[in-house]
Task: structure prediction
Amino acid sequence: MSYSSSQLNATFAALADPTRRAILTRLAQGDASVNELAFPFAMSQPAISKHIKVLEHAGLISRTRESQRRPCRIEAKPLGVATEWLEQYRQFWEGNFLRLDDLLDEMKAPRPNQP
Amino acid sequence: MSYSSSQLNATFAALADPTRRAILTRLAQGDASVNELAFPFAMSQPAISKHIKVLEHAGLISRTRESQRRPCRIEAKPLGVATEWLEQYRQFWEGNFLRLDDLLDEMKAPRPNQP
DNA sequence: GTGGTATATAATCAGTGGGTTATATAACCA
DNA sequence: TGGTTATATAACCCACTGATTATATACCAC
Result:
């Protein structure tokens, strides 16, 4: 399995901002226009448009046209790729893992779990 | 379930850099010193030290002392938190989901999947 | 056409990020 | 004590980010 580095860069960078994460959370409920997305935030409309552009550039949302509105839709594939990358490390927070150097220590020791 | 926003900020920001992701990948194999981590990169030692500081500040690694060396160890908990956050969206890339507005369209339409 | 609404773009600004080189600190060794 | 190794810190540079305000564009309705 091989991950496109620049795609992961863009995805994680997009997710690093709480406004953008909130926008994605909102879009998980259904498509929304720029103004609808901007409403909950104490932030100007151009600021939201910039965040949307970042999300779009990372492939996390797509946009259509609907008269004057440009509704946003969540596009989950890059989220899946990012999750896959993180899944590599699942063993590390689930406890059932053995690091290489722990293994070597164990092999060197007369018996495991002994000082 | 509630996620600490600032922790997610730090985690995703740390993961947005390919050098830092490579450092984590290396540390998944076992603990390593700064120089060992720096070796594969065409980058100065202070640059690597800065990346390490970012990872440490995000709680993704911990450090011990071993004579002159300051070995790094992967700390997976924040990776788990980030993965949990992303898992919220799993339904979106696995296909078996229905957006609220799709549902409404379907209810309005005489029959589903009809133009 | 005019006017209103929705969104995008331009210009600007302060702050941050990722890199550099040079230097300082800390621990070991002879 | 002096020398070597490992790492951290300081000072600096340039590019990028996230915000602003002001203005432009696109579409609709009358």
Notes: The helical segments of chain B are 5-15, 18-27, 34-38, 45-57, 77-87, 90-94, 100-108. Residues 61 and 74 of chain B are 4 Å apart (CA to CA). Residues 106-115 of chain B have pLDDT under 50 and may be disordered.
